[in-house]
Amino acid sequence: MSQPTKTPVPIFKLYGETRHWPTPDLLHCESIPERSRLHDWHIRPHRHADLVHVLHVAHGQVELELEGIRHALRGPLVIVVPALAIHGFRFSQDIEGHIVTLAQPLAERLGQRLGEQAKVLRHADYHPLARSPQARRLATLVEQIDAEYRQPAPGRDRMLGALVEALAVALARLAEPHGPSATPTGVRQRDRGHEHLASFQALIEAQYRQQPSIERFAEQLGMSSAHLNALCRRLADRSALQLLHERLLLEAKRQLTYTNMTISQVADSLGFSEPAYFTRFFKRNTGFSPRDFRLRQHASEASKT
Q: Is residue 74 part of a domain?
């Protein structure tokens, strides 16, 4: 039975937390109990502007609220929550499983590489897992992602990318019986606003290094900059410029953490005319200078080994 969701629905930046993406990785992985026990096993309905969740429930029960519809489910199953989908969970205390969260740039990259198969990451749905080789393969992929994510090692970024791509393909195979034109159970089609926001995020991903003006982005989308800003504030709770700046900041963190590029080189690669301007931008958004951030990241990585 349909359960109407009260509005406004909060927009979170990471699985129930109103804080910035906590890592320079484009992927976050943790066990479901790690996060849910902190909230008394209940994550109230919310949505993310730029994150995709894949939950693998190996064992236990979950009351899933997905786009206003409640489902009483039992593991094993997998749940896909795309950006902007309203979702909430109430887990049993014996829940076992993992949640893999993809930042929008990684989801966009998978879309470019996998084409039609990546559509599974754009539709809110759940899939019961029968005891089959396909289900075991998917569970193994999630376990491998979790192990690789937690243990820094040479080639970690590439290994995680390969595993996530394999996971997306496995999910596409799992969803294939629905057919390419089927509507996921109980899930409403997105409105035009969601489609426009997704198009804007795709443009950001393709052009953020050139730092186009918001007017230029709006022109490419066939709308005014005022309309684009209103759309972003309504659906993502940020301005269009903030969304562009968040992508720049994420890439800056990644380059400072995982490359030996100088601060000047990082600034130039991200379209800043002067290193000093980049430094001011980075410190204003993180509280640290690029140099101090890099030192902290390296110290953190060293403490894990």
A: yes
Number of structural domains found in the chain:
2
Sequential DSSP letters for 284-297: HHHSS-HHHHHHHH
C-beta separation of 110 from 69 below 8 A = no
Q: What is the pLDDT of residues 104-154, one digit of tens each?
A: 888 888 888 888 888 888 888 888 887 667 788 889 999 999 999 988 788
Which residue range(s) make up the domain with 107?
A: 27-178
- 42-46 β-sheet, strand order: 42-46, 87-91, 61-66, 69-74
Token pair recorded at residue 189:
């089609």
Enter the tokens of residue 36: 């849910």
Which tokens in the block code for residue 108?
A: 């966009």
Domain identity same for 149 and 97: yes
Q: What letter would DSSP give residue 10?
A: P
In a domain, 10, yes or no: no
Nearest in space to 81 (alpha carbons), one of 58, 60, 107: 107
- Looking at 117-250, which runs of residues are DSSP E strands? 125-128
Give the CA distances from residue 275 to residues 265, 267, 272, 278, 294, in Å, rounded to whole numbers and listed in that order: 8, 5, 7, 5, 15
